[in-house]
Amino acid sequence: MPLHGAASGGNERVVKALLARDEICPDKPDIHGRTPLHVAACDGHEGVVKALLARDEVGPDKPDIYGLTPLHGAACRGHEGVVRAFLARGDVYPDKPDDYGRTALHDAARGGHKKVVSILLGRKEVNPDQQDSHGSTPLALAAWKGHEDVLKILLGRQEVNLESQDDDGDTPLSCAASGGREGVARILLQQEGVDPENSNCDGQTPLSIAAQFGYWRLVKILLERGGVIPDRPDNDGRTPLWHAARGGHKEIITILLEREGVSPDKPDNYGNTPLSIAAQGGHEGAVRVLLGREEVNPERPDKNGDTPLACAAWGGAAGVVKLLLEQERVNPDKSNDAGRTPLSLAACNAHEGVVKMLLGREEVNPRKVDKGGQTPFQHAAKHGHLGVIELLQPQEAVTHGASSDREDTTP
């Protein structure tokens, strides 16, 4: 498609030459429904755009298969001159949504193109607070991407709802938190009517979201704002500390533990404490910080009876296992509700290093049978973990010698 190629390259002379040929259709779409005008607009070739718009056959507001018009393409890339050329016409609707409900203003705001945003807001047809099919407004998209200049422009419009929630219940401040946008958060927190405790559909506040993703500076900014509850649980009972522990964000764990009212050992709805979830993820730094608090019980089981040591053993977190075994209160041979010990869990998942560590403890019984009648050796054999089998076979041999009449001792 020669006209598409010339339009994409911005070669105005070639475009005009092709348009003079009778066999060339100036508005012919490609397989994605994009016409030469789409291509030129998206790439910012103002001269080519004007040449194409001069042809009566060309639809200036024609959408592609995704509902994107040439104006969308120009706004998305921040091409001011092209945007002005479209808006100068009476047959281009500036607030036309694509198939996802996003207007040119959405695209410009998301891209951080403040001049295009200002141009579009100058048209009375443009709704500055329009929600797309996911419920996101231009303000929310600008906040998510960290475009402070665009944010300030939009905040200057009275129609803009600072607390507008998308389909996930996220506000612009929540969006800023998910992207770690410190500057945007500061600006929004200065606005009257912004509630930093507004939670989304999962019950997570901006603080919880920032803690989850490890944005420690943003966590500090939010905590400096009055009215923020540092230990507020979400719908699953997970506090900001819990989320920070899950991600192994020890800086945030330290910051939160310095706040009054934060419980370092608070379990979620499934009995998982910050320590157990950090142990499961193998986050040694986080585990060290949490173990430094007297209130933290290193033996606290979840609803399945798994202790932090069991969680670490299951995941093969040798460093965490070592840390926990150094704690006097930790029982290295404690069974969960299914009768599985940390050794059994490590053997099942082929974690040889953890198996060696546990076998080095006198309290650990390598021949302990779980409620399914299986020993650690049998779990390893079932899954074909040869390295673990070699480590456990001497202990299993003792079992065979002492109980040769038991059929359930064979793998």
Which descriptors apply to this entry?
411 residues, Serine Threonine Protein Phosphatase 5, Tetratricopeptide repeat, 24 helices
Descriptive report:
With 411 residues, this protein is mainly α. It has a domain at 203-295: Serine Threonine Protein Phosphatase 5, Tetratricopeptide repeat, CATH 1.25.40. It is built from 24 helices and no strands. The protein has helices at 2-9, 12-19, 36-43, 46-53, 70-77, 80-87, 104-111, 114-121, 138-145, 148-155, 172-179, 182-189, 206-213, 216-224, 240-247, 250-257, 274-281, 284-291, 308-315, 318-325, 342-348, 352-359, 376-382, 386-402. The longest helix has 17 residues, at 386-402. The protein is elongated. The model is unreliable at 401-411 (pLDDT under 50).
**Which spans have pLDDT < 50 for at least 5 consecutive residues?**
401-411
Question: Oligomeric status of the shown chains?
Answer: single chain
| Architecture per CATH nomenclature, i.e. the level-2 architecture of the domain at 203-295 | Alpha Horseshoe
Tally of strands: 0
> What is the distance, rounded to the nearest whole angstrom, between the alpha carbons of the first and last residues?
68 Å
Rounded radius of gyration (Å): 31 Å
Strand/helix succession? HHHHHHHHHHHHHHHHHHHHHHHH
Q: What portion of the residues fall into strands of 2 or more residues?
A: under 5%
Q: What is the averaged pLDDT score? A: 94
Task: Summarize the main sheet.
Answer: none
Give the overall form.
Answer: elongated
The level 1 CATH classification of the domain at 203-295 is Mainly Alpha
Structural class: mainly alpha
Helix share bin: 40-55%
CATH H-level homologous superfamily name of the domain at 203-295: Ankyrin repeat-containing domain
The tally of helices reads: 24
